[in-house]
Design goal:
By secondary structure, the chain is mainly alpha-helical. The protein contains four helices and no strands. Helix 1 runs antiparallel to helix 2 (about 25-50) and helix 2 crosses helix 4.
């Protein structure tokens, strides 16, 4: 349900951008990013609450991220990494459009360089990797 809600929000943001013009672009993008951030924070809070309660079975948050009953929040499970990548790609759509509209190819390159950098940093951070795996 959350994914459909975010899709509706993105569609509404893009429609508002078409109606209002480029002068409101940054405010619209910032508003959409805040909504995504709110949902991500809520999911993390649900996941942490489930872990604090003993993690008896897969709760809704861990099921949404693909983590099993034994997953520890922040352990860098495949589901967490995959979810992070999906969120960055969803955000890449409006950011690519804005970058290409404002600075053509160079703007598009900057946007995608930022997306790749964010994903690399997340993948290399201790939180982005599984615990107990040595970086040999």
């Amino acid at each position: 349900m959350e994914r459909q809600e975010l899709k509706r929000e993105l569609d509404a943001t893009l429609e508002a951008r078409r109606e209002l013009g480029s002068e409101y672009e940054s405010a619209l993008v910032e508003s959409f990013v805040e909504k995504v951030d709110t949902q991500v924070r809520r999911r993390l809070a649900e996941e942490r609450l489930g872990a604090a309660r003993g993690g008896g079975g897969a709760d809704r948050a861990s099921a949404a991220t693909g983590a099993g009953a034994g997953a520890v929040p922040g352990s860098g499970t495949f589901g967490e990494r995959f979810g992070f990548a999906i969120v960055t790609l969803v955000l890449a759509v409006p950011l690519s459009a804005i970058g290409a509209a404002q600075a053509r190819l160079s703007g598009l390159v900057v946007v995608w360089a930022g997306i790749v950098a964010v994903n690399l940093i997340h993948a290399r951070s201790p939180r982005g990797r599984a615990k107990g795996v040595d970086a040999a």
